Amino acid sequence: MPPPNVQSDWAAARSAVSGITLTELFMRSIPRQCASYKRTATFTNHTIPVGLLNAHQTKSGTWGKIVVIEGKLLYRILEPNVEEHILDPQHFGIVEPQVLHQVEPIGEVSFYVDFHK
After folding, report:
1. Coil, helix or strand at residue 42
2. Which residue segments constitute the domains of the chain, with CATH numbers given?
3. For the chain, how long is the longest CA-to-CA vector?
4. Residues pairing with 76 in the sheet
5. Which residues make Cβ contacts (< 8 Å) with residue 68, sequence separation at least 6?
6. Residues 37-94: pLDDT tens digits?
């Protein structure tokens, strides 16, 4: 990944060439054998549980798919290296099992998390 000070220029150039965003380039995939088993309520910037705003993780074997309905959400993966992704209705986030992460609203937002095992 490019250094932070050139990340936006690099992302814009890459997107202009291929239509692919950094989130799409670096986001993981939920394994095919996993199936959705639970979904959270829809949260807004006013109702996000405090726990989601702070570092937290899923249990072993549990994946998450963060789906933004409206607005933008900053998804920060905290390990093994810090990654930041801007999620919106066209770009979802994948939460890997037992990996520390957190979210932060960017203005008005609504989203939910779909859990897979």
Report:
1. coil
2. 28-116 (2.60.120.10)
3. 40
4. 84, 102
5. 87, 88, 89, 91, 92, 109, 110, 111
6. 999 999 999 999 999 999 999 999 999 999 999 999 999 999 989 999 999 999 999 9
